Amino acid sequence: MKIIATDRSGVSREIEGRDNWTLMEMLRDAGLPITAECGGACACATCHVYVEDGWYEKLPPKSDAETDMLDMALAVQENSRLACQITCSDALDGITVTLAPE
Amino acid sequence: MSSPIETDVAIIGAGPIGLFAVFELGLLDLKCHLVDILDRPGGQCTELYPEKPIYDIPGLPIVTGQELTDRLLEQIKPFGATFHFNEMASALKRLEDGRWQLSTDAGTEIIARVIVIAAGGGSFVPKRPPIAGIDAYEGKSVFYAVRKMDEFRDRDVLIAGGGDSALDWTLNLAPLARSLTLVHHRDGFRAAQHSVNQMRELVAQGKVKFHVANVKTLHGEDGKLEAVTLAGADKTEWRHSCDRFLPFFGLTMKLGPIAEFGLNLHENLVPVDTAKFESEVPGLFAIGDINTYPGKLKLILSGFHEAALMAQAAFHVCRPNEKLRFQYTTSSSNLQRKLGVA
């Protein structure tokens, strides 16, 4: 599967995703500047991304914990998600995300 | 300012690794002072995930961040370390006699033979909203904490956020502000339900305004805020008059003044050797998530190991003329006396 990720300066790149890795792990592994301070525990809101191009609707819904944690994220939009809570799979091939500002 | 404190070791950071360093140093009779910007021990463990279980601490199949911190505090109790909470290590200089002088932003001065940086990801500081030019207003019209309530008396106060701080200060400042408006990106809150209920009651009484909106732009001059542009969920934007703005989005970690300590940092990490966990500056050690070396794993258990080796090396710096006697806590009555069990 592929992930199309845009960094905070607007540069897009394609990342090869791995099944069952989280989107946060894939972005971090690819060297994108995603803070992910808590390491994926849904405890810090520093892996905040905007899910673009209709992909937001295709994702499994947010858990209550993620909804709550997003209250601590900056510049939240309707298509905001925490990347540590999204698991890569073929169903998400082509998912397009932008790193939220921090 | 009081006179400087003299001790063996000053530890920057009271997270799990800084706490365990007290234990390892204490077994060697080295006294410690710890400085932490937070108001309590535990660092990330208690600030970010106090209730989350950790499964990879040897011998503790499951332990929460808070429990681990409590256990470590119990373990280091015999060594009587001194904690300086709510203080940020702000400057470090080497004295002529070779000792270090560590200063904090609260005016504390600690003179020590050894400095141990156990600062994790850096200092916890408030998250700053990505609004252009906000820095010009900080400390004048934009505040990330309420230090003096009077600062907000008879002001048009805008609060942003949906957590406990946002809700608590909405409730506390509403009676004395001229007007108080709360904005949040959704009509739902992670804050305690009774606070949310009280806020909604104040909204119903017309004493507080609430909008589902984000702050887009700040308007004003010379740090004096006059208004903000708010954007609603439907993208409509409007101008809202206010002269005080309190964004409450929790804390994040920034390296902070450690960057100015004269260390040759590698991607905001302190390179150390793996025999002593000493930086390239003699007497300045770094353990836990803040350091880097070939094969580094950011795990609490790795930090514990680093603390033990650091302590051995720190002993030689603090007691250059003494022989280090390596002993086990199981067999040494000397160590057991220090631990208060013999």
Structure description:
Helix content of chain A is 18%, strand content 22%. With 102 residues, chain A is of the alpha+beta class. Chain A has a single domain, classed as Roll (Ubiquitin-like (UB roll)). Chain A has a 5-stranded mixed sheet. Chain A is globular and about 30 Å long. With 342 residues, chain B is α/β, with parallel strands linked by helices. Chain B folds into 2 domains: 5-124 and 252-338, FAD/NAD(P)-binding domain (3-Layer(bba) Sandwich); 128-249, 3-Layer(bba) Sandwich (FAD/NAD(P)-binding domain), CATH 3.50.50. Chain B has helices at 16-27, 44-47, 65-76, 164-173, 193-204, 300-318, 333-338; strands spanning 5-12, 32-35, 53-54, 63-64, 82-84, 89-94, 100-104, 109-117, 123-126, 156-160, 179-184, 209-221, 224-232, 237-241, 244-247, 251-254, 270-271, 284-286, 291-292. In chain B, strands 1, 2, 5, 6, 7, 8 and 18 form a 7-stranded mixed sheet that branches. A 6-stranded mixed sheet of chain B has the order 14-13-12-11-10-15, with helices on one face. In chain B, α1 (16-27) packs parallel to α6 and α4 (164-173) crosses α5 (193-204). Chain B is elongated. The mean pLDDT of chain B is 96. Chain A binds chain B through residues 35, 37-39, 41, 43-46, 67-78, 80, 101-102, and chain B through 44, 48-49, 52, 121, 127-130, 161-163, 184-186, 188-190, 214, 233, 249-250, 252-253, 298.
List the helices and strands and how they pair.
The complex is a heterodimer of chains A (102) and B (342).
Chain A: E1 2-6, E2 12-16, H1 23-29, E3 48-51, H2 55-58, H3 64-70, E4 80-82, E5 95-99
Chain B: E1 5-12, H1 16-27, E2 32-35, H2 44-47, E3 53-54, E4 63-64, H3 65-76, E5 82-84, E6 89-94, E7 100-104, E8 109-117, E9 123-126, E10 156-160, H4 164-173, E11 179-184, H5 193-204, E12 209-221, E13 224-232, E14 237-241, E15 244-247, E16 251-254, E17 270-271, E18 284-286, E19 291-292, H6 300-318, H7 333-338
Parallel strand pairs in B: 1-2, 1-8, 2-5, 8-18, 10-11, 10-15, 11-12, 17-19
Antiparallel strand pairs in B: 3-4, 6-7, 7-8, 9-16, 12-13, 13-14
